[in-house]
Each structure stands twice: as structure tokens, then as C-alpha cells.
Amino acid sequence: MDINSSNLVGKNIRKTGFFIVLFFLLVVLVMKFLEVNNFFGYSFSTLSNDIFAPPSIKHLCGTDRLGRDVCFRTLQGSSIAIEVVFLAIFFALILGLPLGLLSGYFGGILDKLLSLIMDTIFSIPVILLSVVVAFVLGKGILNASLALCIVYSPQYFRLIRNQTILVKSETYIEAAKVSGVDIKTIIFKYILPNIIAPLPIVLTLNAADAVLVLGSLGFLGLGVPADVPEWGSDLNLALAALPTGIWWTALFPGLAMFLLVLGLSFIGEELESLLEKKKY
User: Fold this and answer.
1) Rg (CA), the chain
2) Which of 156, 164, 217, 232 lies at 20 to 30 Å from 69 by C-alpha?
3) Which residue has the higher pLDDT, 77 or 40?
4) What is the mean pLDDT of the chain?
5) Structural element, H or E, at residue 12
């Protein structure tokens, strides 16, 4: 494959990932608008729907065991997934970034202590750690976000710490120290802007992974409350009906999860490729 073909493929992948993620973001906005206007409020009309009705004109994705529209249920689940993942990655970033900066710049006992804690957390399998933390914190959107935050914060800490150690040895940092520039200015003006380039890659790839982990927590009954639409819990409920030929309650939540992970992964991989090209 020549360079032009490779660039064209990369451009198409980036566009595909962007449009997939943009679609889900638009879904979130629409779902939030409908939720504010009590569109999803409980009503007796839902009880009149046939349970496990197959996809039709009336219900494009069929209905579930309670007669709820699977299409609306899946779209609501996408809103919850993006909300939890955004909060989790945001919390992990604001925890891991400053700690990584301080650890990498000052070194010494602080660096050893923080590195020991973060390396210990990092060494625990993601699913196992998230399950334990979610079990301790209990169900809830914020609790699920915090569970994922604890899982991913060591990655940001390690990345920022290692980048800080490399940058702080540069000549311009030494010159700033000799000139009497205060530590705050050195860290936030001279070091931070030069170490954040890889962050968008880690953010998107972590977000893709977090969607799967959240789905796993929901499947195990440890994510958000049972009354909140979530892909993992819906897949768990669909599992019992699958052997009887009820395939639509499992297909659409699973497909939505797959597409969101695919879109985020495409963006992350393409960002990584662009960063590699920039280096050379």
C-alpha cells in the first residue's frame, strides 16, 4: 500500500470514527431534552404493549419483557454510557495529571510513594478492580464513574510522570530555574504544554475501554440502578430470553455498544498515527 492510499484509509477511518461519536453525542442531547420534558415518564400505554414483540413498524427494534420499546431503551442507554464514561475520564484526568506532574518534577519520597500506589492499582486487572470498587461504592451513575476513575487514573499518572521527568531535564527548564522563575510557572507554563500531546490518544482509547467495562459492571448488576437504562444490564436481562428465539433485546444494545467502542477506537488509533507521523 502506497503512502497516498495509506493517508486515504486513515482519513476515512478518522471520518468514520468522528461521525459515529458525533451521532452518539447528538443522541445524548436529544435524550436529555426528552427526559427534561418527561417524555420517558411512566404511563399505562407502555403496559398495553405486547411483551417480546418482534421488530415492526410500531416498534422498530421490538419490545422487551415489560413491553418497553427496545429502540428507545437502547438510545437512553447510550446517554447513560456517555455520561458515565465522560465523568470517569474527567475525574481520572484531574486526579492523575496533577499527581503525575508533582511526582515527576519533585521526585524523591513523594515520587516513590505515589508511584508505589499507582503501580499497585495499575497491576490489578481492570475488570476485577472495577467490580470490587463498584461493589464497595454501590450502584449509581456517580459511583460507577468513580469506580472507573480509580481504574484509569494510574494510566494518566504514569504517562504525565514519565513525560515530566523527560522534559524537566531539558536545557530551557534548567535556564528557567537559574533565572529564578518560580516552580508554579515552570510546571504550568514550560512543562505542562510540552507533555499533553499524547493525552487525546489515551483519553479516546480509555473511553472506548470504559464503555466495555461499564457494560460489564451493568451485566453483573454492579453499575447503575436497575431502573436506569444501561446496555450491560439490558444484555443480562436479554440473556434469559435468547434461547427462546428473542434475539432483538440482545442485538440492539450489543450493537450500540460495539459501534460506540468502534468509533472511539478509530479516533484514538488515528490520533496515535498522526502523532507518530509528527514525530518523524
Assistant:
1) 23
2) 217
3) 77
4) 87
5) helix 3-36
Residue type, 20: I
The grid coordinates of residue 172 equal 530551557
**Residues 33-70: b if buried by 16+ CB within 10 A, e if exposed:** eeeeeeeeeeeeeeeeeeebbebeeebebbbbeebbbb
In this predicted model, what pLDDT tens digit does every residue of 218-232 receive, in sequence order? 999 898 888 888 999
What is the C-alpha separation between 155 and 47, in angstroms, rounded? 47
Residue closest to 96 by CA, chosen among 132, 122, 135:
122
Report whether 96 contacts 85 (CB < 8 A).
no
156-211 residue pLDDT tens: 999 999 999 999 988 888 898 888 888 899 998 899 988 988 898 899 999 999 99
Residue 38 has pLDDT above 70, yes or no: no
Q: What are 90's three cell numbers?
A: 474527567
Distance CA 55, CA 103 (A): 55
Residue with cell 510557572: 185
CA angle 63, 69, 73 (to 5 degrees): 120
For the record, the C-alpha cell of 225 comes out as 440502578
DSSP per-residue letters across 101-133? HHHHHH-HHHHHHHHHHHHHHHHS-HHHHHHHH
- Which three-class secondary structure state does DSSP give residue 257? helix
What stretch of H or E contains 202?
A: helix 199-219
